[in-house]
Amino acid sequence: MSQTFDSIFKQDVKRIHYQIDVLDSNKSHIHVVIWPTFSGLSDFEKSVADQIAAFGFSVTAIDLYGQDKNPVALDEKRAKMGALLAEAEPLHALQHELTQSACDGIQTKTIVHVGFCLGGRLALEAGLHFEGSAGAASFHGLMSFFRAQSEDKANTKAKILVLNGHQDPLVPEGDAQEAKRYWTSLGMDFQFVDFSNTVHSFMLPSANNPDHGSQYNPLTAQRSYLYLANFLEEFV
Fold first, then answer.
1. With contact defined as beta carbons under 8 Å apart, do 154 and 133 qualify?
2. Structural contact between residues 142 and 120, judged by C-beta atoms closer than 8 angstroms
3. What residue ranges do the domains of the chain occupy?
4. Cα–Cα–Cα angle for 208, 210, 212, nearest 5°?
5. What is the tens place of the pLDDT at every residue in 193-221?
6. Is the pTM of this model over 0.90?
7. What are the two backbone dihedrals, phi and then psi, of residue 39, each rounded to the nearest 5 degrees?
8. Cα 163–121–22 angle (5° rounding)?
9. Alpha helix segments (H runs only) across 29-87
10. Rounded distance, CA 145 to CA 88, Å?
11. What fold, for 5-233?
């Protein structure tokens, strides 16, 4: 992709995030930011936002690419994801900008990031690199997130939850172990849950490509929501 990062993700990009404010809850000081799959903001992320709001938390599902700019073809999705993840600095600047736009009064909010597939990695990026992030939960996210340049630049206070398919071909055992060693070296609070008989995209009802390691798993999805609900309660 020959275009610059800004021309793809910033210039002339109009975004409409999907936001639910739960004002009458004792959890209203917590705001959950949802990062989407490489397909961009869809009904799936909106349904997750509805579920998180039902837990009592305010939530925003991020419009990552902008209105009418979601990629459709697989090659286009991969190209946009590659451009997004090519360099740490522009990626984190964009994520920080979108987080601020998603959370009114961000200085007074406890921010927890949640994401799926590409969004799982983006949640981990935000949790590790943004000082204001209290936590990050990754669902079938890649473990190739950018490491902090030094320990003092890492947000070591963030809590991490990784929900992973044990047979996910996109998360090799070596990558999983390296991520765990990294968080351990920083003294971070992390949980890494492997689900048996589960591959990539286990949360997405539309995922049905087992020959390529992508398949919805309703039981794992149900269990994952319970893990997420418990994780979010830790910030109340």
1. no
2. yes
3. 5-233
4. 110
5. 999 999 999 999 999 999 999 999 999 99
6. yes
7. -85, -10
8. 75
9. 43-54, 74-84
10. 9
11. Rossmann fold (3.40.50)
